[in-house]
Amino acid sequence: MKDTHISPGTPPRASAHALEVVGLTKRFGERTAVSDLSFTVGHGEVLGLLGPNGAGKTTTVRTLGTLLVPSAGSALVAGLPLTPENGVEIRRRISIMPESPGLYLRLTVTENLECFAGLYELPNVRERIDHVLRAVNLTDRARDLCGSLSKGLRQRVGLARALLSDPQLLFLDEPTSGLDPVGAREVHELIDGLRERGVTIFLTTHRLEEAERLCDRVAIINTTLRTIGRPDELRDQLFKRTIVVRTVAPLSEPENVFRELPGIEGWHEDASGAYFLTVTDPKVTAPELTRALVRAGADVLGITESLHSLEDVYLELMDSDGKTDGESS
Amino acid sequence: MNWTPIRAILQKEFKDYRRNPSILTAIALMPVIFFGVALGIILALPASVTSGFGLPLLYLLLIPTLMPSQTAAYSVIGEREQGTLEPVLTTPIRREEFLFGKALASLIPTLVLTYIALGILAACLAVVQPHKARVVLGSPEFAVILLFSPLLAGWSIWMATAISARTRDVRAAQGFASVAGLVPPTVIALIAFGIIPRSLAVWLAAGAALLLIDGLGYWRILPALFDRERLVTGGKP
Fold it and tell me: Domain map of chain B by residue range?
């Protein structure tokens, strides 16, 4: 991606956060799409909203983007209370890239952007369009009809359109949905670039590696907010830390080796002969463990800390949701 | 109301029309057909007939009735089907501005083509059968076309847009819109043929009623039917 500067919109001084959500609930008739969501997004932060299909991610974006009226709760979006009266002004300060880019296929890339520049009543239209096209590496396709572009390129046009108004807060709803790995990587690079420039981004996805790579914090929802935090915080919240020991031959008396180690909470051996030690702090336990293994005459293949991925966190939470549902039904 | 977003919608629509062969064909064919029918009937009437030359002009009223209903019926549901409605609704454009831009995009080509058809018809008659041209230009039907075309187009557009905002299928919207659009021209035809007693007062009353209904349609009914939430989620009202 070219190093084109796109300055994020001036943060509103009235609010400490780009987005503050308190008890947000959206019901469609009898069905509750999202319930009692509360979280904040700081200026320049990238927050990922994760959840399975039907968890309420898109509904959350649409509600915060003033397309849907919340059933309960409140929010401060780009410094303005989320009310119908503020709808126009909020939409002026934010930008939403829906899951499907929704381009006018019979219009060229530039014509699409010109149309949206008009809808936002932007000044210096030509300059802005050149700017965002450079940012998404599409300058050479500016005169192409959008209908002739690949899905990945259309997604880039969608992103250019979202950047056109220089938003204070950018909502990206499943930006890599349906893209092949190359297309997804291109979009990731674009988002990385925005992040480096301090654009506040609210990103919904069900791609866990995407969230882990791009987001400062992630919120996992399944109608309600299940958890929120930095990926490493969530791992620590949900999982005990584990050291894995692999040896050439099984230890003759593993209990004698492990039991006196500092910070050890338990251990077990798996079918492959690896030892899994649950510890409070690997930095404290690992050096002592190494010495104990040498003393025991073990031929050590490796001592590593087992790191849980965001996927593990996600699956753990979804599993517990499934169990709760099962118990309550 | 703000003109910049209205102009953006208008320009987008015109560019879209230009590159859409089916829309272009519909826009071009309809005036040609009704112009041809009206001219053919007037030319075929015997020279001995001294009145009624103006009645075939009423065919031209089908241009402002049917032509805009096709584009207006597509205006909301079409955007929704191609996934462009949600991005537009996430911009600061107001509902009224969006609807007004869409209405103008249907109204302008309709009126231009209707009046061009009327002008060419008058010119053709003036060249080929000048005595009939004088009668046609002085007929009440000529004045009716001039005055009622914007009102009929207005009716067709708000009715078709309202249907477009509440239906889930473009073809259904266009079908319903075509039928709904025919109500006022039917009344006009009943007046023109004397089934409803024909007088200046009746014409004025019909025009005023249509103007009132159009006003209500644009300022009350259409905005009420344009439900942003329903359009985005596709849910029932």
Answer: 3-233
